[in-house]
RNA sequence: GGGCAAUUAGCUCAGUUGGAUAGAGUGUUGGCCUCCGAAGCCAAAGGCCGCAGGUUCGAAUCCUGCAUUGCCCGCCA
């Protein structure tokens, strides 16, 4: 495998931090202060453009420590900063903010770096090659994926894309919950449908069984394929000896359907891991033995408990029931233990938000096993409520009345569905309106960004017709880009690395869609105000550089989101 | 009863480590195509950042209490 080279050099912010650090060190030395905690230096993008490109509150921070007036300290720092040739202007404002403005050539050079980085721009070495396992969807193979699973799928997949981009080595994993009671119920439900088809059962399917119509379809399939081969033992409802056949048939078929749906949604997995494997291979026993060795298990009332409360959980949890059956939690401990053994440095689980109470106990287990609690993160994904043109659509998994992911993707398209799921932070509730997501010509947010991309492509097609080319001359590169909105656009592009780093650090994906939306808005606004292709060759050539760089970043964003970047719409 | 989270414009939501005059979309009202794509742009109106205290140069952001809402609290998975 080739190693991805980090092509982005310094973002402007990091450059400015260096200047400020240097100035602080100089002033500190002059005042006889030895060490200053330089990590505390904060550089911000001011809200008001008039304040400059960057601003620092360091003078106010130092004021307390040095027992001096912040504006005085600011003035001393300004004297140092004025020596930097990249800084066009340094001013002290308000209570002691230091506002800095960079020179035009400085920004033009930054644009050049961005363009030269090409499709790799803003790739980070934040992850430093550490191995991450993102586990998501992991829906029980008892029915088709619904829209809630779709959100989890989008979040997990984009998380994996983002972390890969940020320098981690990432694998995606689907944990197949193919052990336990619900699989028995699945088998019984299919068996009942099968018998119904043969006229041996009438009326409503019993309470507690899976009611969805997909089981009836499966039963038909089963009857057509191999119905004749089923023995009396297979269909004996008194004795579950033959149940395994139905369970396996249903689970395999449903899992295959799930794979197809995810494929349609643009989501693939490196690993599909079976829960059953953990019981049959003795991995659960190994994990429990490990915990026992660490002296965090005890017996009480016939059951075996894990002392999770010692690690911050609110109470201890049962791992082996009094009847000798190991709990789901026990297999989950074994599962996560095995993930670490496979060599992953960081585990990320994407769960439904109703599982939030489960986080402390799993974290406790991870800590008890000797791993850093920070090496595990659970991303909680809130429910999706579905509506159509403003009126809610009722959903009930048990009653089998729900809109499947497949239906949604076929109706609104992969791009719109994915984008919609990522416009809000994952732990806040989301209303998904089918009509809105489907609308192709007005209110749909996904088209806003795609349109910006297509629009730039259109400009380039036009430029080619007119024989105008981007300005590649190093001496005059981008030199005519001096409008405030042009500099704002370069700043926005410059800030992309910081944006991705914060998204990767916090695991918050909505930051990408917000950034993309803002960048597209700036582009549209610029386009409406200024013509890219003009009589002036230098201006046209420079503006093509700028919009070309914007197209590049929009495409990176869309790719990270798994959304297409069309050249025409 | 205990725990976790949330509360920002009519509605849906952003708001990096505490920073300067609080942001977007949508909705409402009014403008912009003889001009590179109007799936776009511009402007106006709209706020006790749930309430009350505290911390400090400075709070939507941190702390405490209260109110309201959602979720979780099984030897289920």
Number of strands: 15
Strand content: 5-15%
- Under the CATH scheme, which class of the domain at 443-561? Mainly Alpha
What Rg do the Cα atoms give?
29 Å
The CATH architecture designation of the domain at 443-561 is Orthogonal Bundle
Low-confidence stretches: 1-8
CATH topology of the domain at 443-561: Isoleucyl-tRNA Synthetase, Domain 1
Mean pLDDT: 89
The neighbouring-strand order within the major sheet is 7-6-5-11-12
The geometry reads as globular
Describe this structure in words.
With 569 residues, the chain is α/β, with parallel strands linked by helices. Among the domains are: 91 residues, Arginyl tRNA synthetase N-terminal domain (Gyrase A, domain 2), CATH 3.30.1360.70; 83 residues, no CATH class; 119 residues, Isoleucyl-tRNA Synthetase, Domain 1. It has 20 helices and 15 strands. The chain has a five-stranded parallel beta sheet, sandwiched between helices. A four-stranded antiparallel beta sheet has the order 1-2-4-3. β11, α12 and β12 form a beta-alpha-beta unit. 39% of the residues are buried. It binds one RNA strand of 77 nucleotides through α2, β9, β10, α11 and α16.
